[in-house]
Specification:
Helices cover 70% and strands 0% of the residues. The chain has a domain of 144 residues: Tetracycline Repressor, domain 2 (Orthogonal Bundle), CATH 1.10.357.10. The longest helix has 30 residues. With 210 residues, it is mainly alpha-helical. The chain is elongated. The protein contains 10 helices and no strands.
Amino acid sequence: MMCSTAASPRDSILDAALRLLAQSGYRKTTMDDLAAESGVPRRSIYLHFASKEEIFLSSIDRVVDGVLAELRAIAGERTSAESRLWRMLVARVMTRLDAVRLYRESLDEMLADLRSSYLARRDRYFEAETHVLAAVLAEGVRSEGWQVDDPKLVAHALVQATNSLLPFSLQREELSSRAEVQARATVLAGLLLRGVCAPSTRPPPARARR
């Protein structure tokens, strides 16, 4: 007997939301459209989501879950802390860009309509990414002598710096050029790490005399 690979109703609704976002845009998509596209009856949709807004916000949550999974996978590799940190900074940009490529034309419209609710969630997204980056920074301090007094503060600065290349920060024409965004992310990550990964020049603390 083969195991069923059918998507859950919740995932079917979220998948449908992204297809409709690409086809019709956020504003034109209705709950009836979502029911027809997902195959989940309209009444049943409300068992999983309170509103159309919640469906599309949850679709963003799912994108960020994918970003965090990628960052954690890189953080867990057995390569140098510098190599992992560089790849994580590029990945947080490119994973998002690839996730929205099918509906980039509707992205501005959706984020404009969901702005206040999205901004509240965005702080949570960035805090979670900061936590993963900070762990690798702390490892670099221990194993490679980086001069980083507060890994969490530096991780937050790295998140803020690379936010300039995330989809919501780019113009529509910039979103259409994946190669250009990747090139810019690569250069930016390299510049940031030049400062972060420099070994400490301070003498080690003196040992207490016995």
